[in-house]
Fold this sequence. Notes:
10 strands
Amino acid sequence: MAQEMRYYSGCDVGSTTGKAVIINDNGIVATSIVPSEIDPEDTANKALEAALKQVKDIKRVKDLACLVGTGYGRTEVPFADINISEISCHAMGAHCCNPKIKTIIDIGGQDVKGISLNDDGSVLDFAMNDKCAAGTGKFYEAMSRTFRMDLSQFSDLSLNAKKSIPVTSQCSVFAESEVISLFAKKNSPADIALGIQEAVARRCLMLLKRVGIRNDVVMTGGCAKNKGLVKALKSIAKIDIVSLSIDPQLIGAFGAAVLAKKRKNKISE
């Protein structure tokens, strides 16, 4: 008799988005990214519901063999069998995508993390900047509004810069005022955008140096989709940044799903 296929899930409840990944023994079978609600539990429910709709064999959360909650709202994930730090989940997710990865820069909605990995995907060391929103997803949302464009447009804007106009303010609020002042002086929007990307890249480099930069290096989180930031970090840090086989915004949820599978299999042994 064929063994029944079991499914495992990770749900990453972040400050700006909720992500869910469902896997089985063959790999990823469903993913979802939804905007965060005021209540983290609502975010988790919506992310899980969106992922479950993609899997024919299961209809309800309780049909999952194991569910791990992660992210800042991990304690509010309904039906989670266990909650695990997003640092550990990003480490495991990146490792499972590419075992050569040893360093991660994770930029979320409200914080930036540098993570160093052991050979088995566990966390060797980490450093976090969660005291200021500069360089986070919230910061980029504010900047894109200031530039009167959406996030994807702002991500590409600095790629057309002729030179970098330095943005020196470390505070998100002051940086926005500084940008407005630079606009008033008729500076090129692309050049200003490059200055912003380089300022964020320098903050990322500080965290990477604290954990030690070892190849291969990868970016995770929603800001890993910011082409201008990726290019600026490569230039400022003088490093190569490898691409992942899945959406970098899903890495935390994917790592949580992998850890859910590991936990269930260990219990079953």
